[in-house]
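Hey, weird one. I pasted the Flp pilus assembly protein TadD sequence into the form twice and got a warning about non-standard characters only the second time. First submission, copied straight from the form history:
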Amino acid sequence: MRQMMLLPLIFSGAWLLSACGERSDAQVSRAMESVAAVDQENMQEIMLSAADPAEAVSYFQGAVERNPDSISAKRGLARSLVRAGGAAESIPVWRQVMEHPDSTNEDRVFMAEALLRDNKWDEAEAALNAIPPTHETFHRYRLEAMIADNNKQWDKADHFYETAIGLTTRPAGVYNNWGYSRLSRGQHQQAERLFAQALRHDPTLFTAKTNMVLARAAQNQYSLPLIEMSQTERAMLLHTMAIAAIRKGDVSIGQGLLVEAIDTHPQHFEEAVRALRALEGNVRAG
């Protein structure tokens, strides 16, 4: 009798163990799917930020072929095409992304950037105008500033540059763009101050160094600013200042700066040598 009573208990215990095993297998399966999804997301981020641009394009093209309905794969392909210098090729892909029900306002910002890179300013402006004003990001306002600049809407441009700077921890590039905007307006002192701000945040930003030299030359200041620079950079900046001086009619100053640039460069500075020879030839001919 006792044995008969044990049978239901044994079968009951076996059923519980079986159920636990099934539940455990399901949990493991879900966990593995979650890990795979995280791994895929991490791989996509690596491809978008650190991988060679051409390699990233190849990776996302394969991902789109394997899963044509994946918005993340198409988004990655469009962004990697822009990184690889293929802004025009990215635009049809961005349009596919925008047709997807899970597209975002940030996708539209990225599409606007691609349109700008492809010199489609009106379309880029329309894309940004379609985004609600509540979508306030550094990426958006940086593009808004560039479009305002292109439209010569200076007050709007200044507002957008200032707003963008407040939304990033790495504002060097924005300060440089804002400075170039001021330089193009003939506001040379304000431009020089903005380039100095850019270099405070990123002392390696050579475009800001070049632009600062141009701003100083526009004010007839032909000495290099007190900024961090290598010997090669010093020679290149002297060459830039020399060309700016010559274009302003300060030929003798430009000639002296070219000689200094050639002497400063640690190697043969062919571009400066050619400029000096052409200048000396013009002087003799004159």
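That's the output from the first submission. The warning seems to come from a hidden character in my clipboard, not from the data itself. Residues 1-22, 28-38 have pLDDT under 50 and may be disordered.
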